[in-house]
Design goal:
By secondary structure, the chain is an alpha/beta fold. The chain has two domains: 46-180, 3-Layer(aba) Sandwich (abc type-2 transporter like fold); 182-382, no CATH class. Helix content is 59%, strand content 10%. It starts with a helix and ends with a helix.
């Protein structure tokens, strides 16, 4: 009977905060719905770039086409059982532009057809010198399935068109230093972003505790402003973030991690990411009011930041708009999205600070934006205007 008594008391306590119960119950279903909505309710498709240098008229099918064009059409027709397209192909003409898209993970693989691809099919004999080259970031988990599916269609087309198993040569060119990375090194950039983000719990709960305990109201007598209080807390956690980042890099290197690019750039990216987490924590605390509620509400931005920024695993980025020739997706509103891209470029592909300038600017702007929103909300909700 005591168990039932305790159960009734606990139930009454929980029902006094119905929103906490609602948020707890809806957390997992909401994220399942979000994934479904962002993926269009379908399956993952793989973005592949094509550079077609092929020349001549293909001896089979439409003679107005090259054999490379016919092979590309067969790749485009590859679908899931539901009819959803598996490979989404884009023709490009400049290899440097294509490699930039691969580094930004706007595409997963690049296929280059040589000039004598059609001639190789026409001759039908192995070793004619025709070559198909696959280029990509081998640390990108989407690269391997994109190449496997593309190559399967290509081999089937060549076998049917020429009558020989493989009259062409297939080569692979890793992007940057991605071909020499161990499995552990592949995961390090994402782990560093996760390490910088996990402070979100502590920040939200500490600020909420100041509100719940009445500390904020008492400090108002001292003419304290929102910027004073939040600035002091932010400095503390920025220092904690810097120490966490430094220890994380030391641990990774002690376990065999090697940075392909300047290590100081990677540390800078993680440090700014830590500051952005402070801003997100401020915004979260403004909607909590109690420590118990903060412990529940903080899961929403934490899951959003970790699972939709690409830090834990790759995810699509639904298109919002295009500005100055650059596409922007909905997840570009998350600082960690830019941090993940920049850190992968530096640590895995050997990029320098000049090659991640855009990501650093976007990360810094979003960090300032979230911090400013947090200060404004805190002043409006907890402090009297001065």
């Amino acid at each position: 009977m005591r168990i039932l008594s305790v159960f009734r008391v606990a139930l009454r306590e929980q029902l006094r905060s119905p929103w906490d119960l609602v948020l707890t119950l809806l957390l997992a279903p909401m994220f399942i719905w979000l994934y479904w909505s962002f993926l269009g309710g379908g399956s993952t498709y793989y973005r592949v770039l094509i550079i077609n240098n092929d020349r001549g008229n293909c001896p089979i099918g439409d003679s107005a086409q090259t054999c490379a064009e016919q092979a590309t059409e067969q790749m485009s027709s590859l679908t899931y059982e539901s009819g959803t397209q598996l490979l989404k192909l884009t023709d490009v003409h400049d290899r440097s532009d294509a490699e930039a898209m691969l580094r930004d993970r706007k595409a997963f693989a690049l296929i280059i057809f040589s000039e004598n691809f059609t001639n190789s099919i026409r001759n039908g004999e192995p070793g004619t010198g025709a070559q198909v080259t696959f280029v990509g970031d081998l640390t990108n988990p989407y690269y391997t399935p994109a190449v496997v599916f593309s190559n399967a269609v290509l081999e089937n087309y060549v076998r049917e068109a020429s009558g020989y198993p493989s009259p062409i040569l297939v080569a692979e060119e890793p992007l940057g230093g991605s071909g020499s990375r161990s499995e552990f090194e592949i995961y390090v950039p994402g782990l560093l972003i996760v390490a910088s983000t996990m402070m979100l719990f502590s920040i939200a709960i500490l600020i909420t505790r100041q509100v719940e305990s009445g500390t904020v109201q008492r400090l108002q007598i001292t003419r304290m402003t929102a910027l004073d209080m939040l600035g002091g807390i932010s400095i503390l956690y920025i220092l904690i973030s810097l120490v966490t980042v430094a220890l994380s890099f030391v641990a990774a290197q002690a376990l065999g991690f090697r940075s392909q690019g300047p290590l100081w750039v990677g540390i800078l990216i993680c440090a700014i990411t830590g500051v952005s987490v402070v801003g997100i924590g401020l915004v979260t605390a403004c909607f909590s009011r109690t420590v118990a509620r903060a412990a529940i509400i903080v899961n929403f931005p934490l899951f959003l930041v970790l699972f939709f920024s690409g830090a834990v695993f790759p995810v699509g980025n639904p298109h919002l708009f295009t500005l100055a020739g650059r596409d922007y997706g909905i997840f570009d509103l998350l600082p960690q999205t830019h941090a993940t891209n920049a850190l992968n470029k530096v640590l895995s592909l050997g990029a320098g600070v000049g090659e991640v300038t855009f990501e650093l600017i976007a990360l810094s702007v979003l960090t300032l934006l979230y911090f400013a929103i947090g200060v404004w909300l805190f002043r409006r909700m907890y402090l009297q205007a001065r």
